Amino acid sequence: MADVLERPKADTTITMRLPVQTRELIDRAAATIDKSRTEFVLESARQRAIDVLLDQRVFHLDAAASEAFADILEKPPAPVEALRTLVASKSPWE
User: Fold this and answer.
1) What Rg value do the Cα atoms of the chain yield, rounded?
2) Residue 26, Cβ density class (10 Å: 0-12 exposed, 13-18 middle, ≥19 buried)
């Protein structure tokens, strides 16, 4: 028998008000790819959230902070158990 993918348990809600035209647009798009409105909105919002979080890679530092950052990158501290645990944990979007 084929393995069935388990869905994470839905244990919270999001309620929002939006213009009728926006809901109709979402419904048309969802129907186009044979999804429910909920599936479409959830998948779209989840992907956008991942994109926003992954895009947080550009930041600006003054000269002193830039030097300190470069020093840290060149001589990182030895890993500790807390870091190993963090790296082994799931990402927030998983």
Assistant:
1) 21
2) middle
Does any domain span residue 15?
no
Q: List CB contacts of 36: < 8 A, sequence separation 6 or more.
A: 30
**Domain encompassing residue 34:** 20-76
Q: How much of the chain exceeds pLDDT 70, in percent?
A: 94
CA nearest 16: which of 34, 36, 41?
41
**pLDDT for 32-58, tens place per residue?**
999 999 999 999 999 999 999 888 877
- Domain tally for the chain? 1
Give the other-Cβ count within 10 Å of 9's Cβ.
Answer: 6
According to the model, what pLDDT value does residue 3 have? 59
